[in-house]
């Protein structure tokens, strides 16, 4: 949502052109000066090595397929984000770095979730070291990560069954190193932000066969709100401890524990507006006062623990076996006000909504065992690869979900904290009555509405093989078998104990396939080192339980098929990579209402007749295009729609623009008086997108709002002297959204409680010491 579209767009274009010209001029000057004398050329050659160490494109290009494939050889769209890239743009997690990935969008943080939409599909679950985590605290802190792999589309034979058809996010935790490393830092920023972190790694014995690593971070900050008399403190902490032991040159065992906790205000946004004509529209609201809660009654505490024991052995024939045993647990307590709208609906005033209380408790613990074996084998005189894996997951205790009764608190308006309704100490409702915090035990005060227990066991078997048909043609085939059993028990529902408890047991088994091929069309031609075309067919499914027309609970998964073709290159000695991907998918068996009432995939009697279809294009360039000049650029086109046979019109998925793109660029001075200085910026451009999902909402409200187009500009800078007494220090500066663009996203597809502001303007300054 632009404040002044034409004026701001002009400013952005001017800024982009000026930045590009400055960076280009600096790069050209650096190249010209390097050719003047042999002495200067030798000096530049040394500096380029340091520049490569700070480049966007990671040196390690193998993905987590289990096969020995680089990114250019992988027949699927994959983006790798390094820790240095996250630091460059001031991102605290992969969630805050989605601008770097085409067709991946942030969708707000309602209910305490870090919500991401990938290729038009909502994605919540994440993977850590390829182990899937299902918990409400989903954003692993970026300071704990070596890298993050984002696979777009079903990752059937890569990670197993995808948690979301849109793709997978796999975070690789930092591991112990053979050499000694030390990094300590501090950061301050807007909204009372303060952050300290430390990372120490290295050998623990004389011969270096035992290594250890300890990583820790403490982060506190306020919300980007300017409301008189109120404070919004948030606290997050994280620590990682890891030990590795080289039992022999071919055998290594590692133990890693990751813990993350937080105590925050969940800051849940608000609702859309219903116009007098009955349509939905975006509110004319100030982001700095867009808050419908109270700090005394708006709180979330959450903790996750992840412990991983790994055994890695390489046999004499080169085959590699990995055994992983992971224990994962989480707990979350959530309490806050619940703004239910849209504004002006339900015979309320044009700017009024209902305010309810909302309390949730979640907890769970599971154990996962993963065994894999992969390597080369010879057939018909050629070397090929295979990778086989078994994974078994079992809930140690049934995951528990508890919901308290939602109590009506009063009516609120869009000027909730305006001068006439706010006395400086507590907010007032539209009728003038003050907000009265709940005293005492909230569970006792509200009462428990629902308790849901779920016990799940999963068994997955996968096999994939890469066949080198010719020197240029490779064919990848994969198969995945998934067997699952879950028991859902409801001992309390609608505020009443259920005697005996309701128990639903669901069992299913599913087999899905993947076929991919790559063909090497370019080999050392000009600046292109390697160029490959690829095709990928992948299947996926997502388990679901629904109530059929007879009122019976039935299990039937949603199913997906995707076709993807593309072209990938490596250029300039591997320092630059490009990719283009064209894909088309269809998701079937989506539950919809069996009548013309209800919502898309909602409650009540449903049938599996809904579909989601999409066609898209993604372009990406990552790398150091000139010594010291790094670029990460992408463009995405997405045409997606949700179809319901009950309705004549379709709707687009929420927060999924048809056109979007971003460019992040930095230039690092490699010689002269400014050596070690790196400057750059980010330009993110997005077209309009939908704020409401579900074709039944079209019948109810008419045309759905499609807006949200924006252009956001960020600036980044760092300085790391290459010599002298300060050579181990690095200074970092980030200025997010320098033109203070208002950006709204749909955190929920329901028009009642759907939107929030993101990417508010902020600045941060950090200092780091490294050895």
Automatic annotation (TrEMBL):
InterPro entries: Beta-barrel_TonB_sf (IPR036942), Plug_dom (IPR012910), Plug_dom_sf (IPR037066), TonB-dep_rcpt-like (IPR039426). Keywords: Cell outer membrane, Membrane, Signal, Transmembrane, Transmembrane beta strand, Transport. Residues 1-30 form the signal peptide. Coiled coil: none annotated. It comes from the Bacteria. The keyword Transmembrane applies. It holds the Pfam family Plug. It is found in: Cell outer membrane. Residues 71-164 form the TonB-dependent receptor plug domain. PANTHER family: FERRICHROME IRON RECEPTOR-RELATED, HYDROXAMATE SIDEROPHORE RECEPTOR FHUE. Belongs to the TonB-dependent receptor family. This is TonB-dependent receptor plug domain-containing protein. It comes from Kineobactrum sediminis.
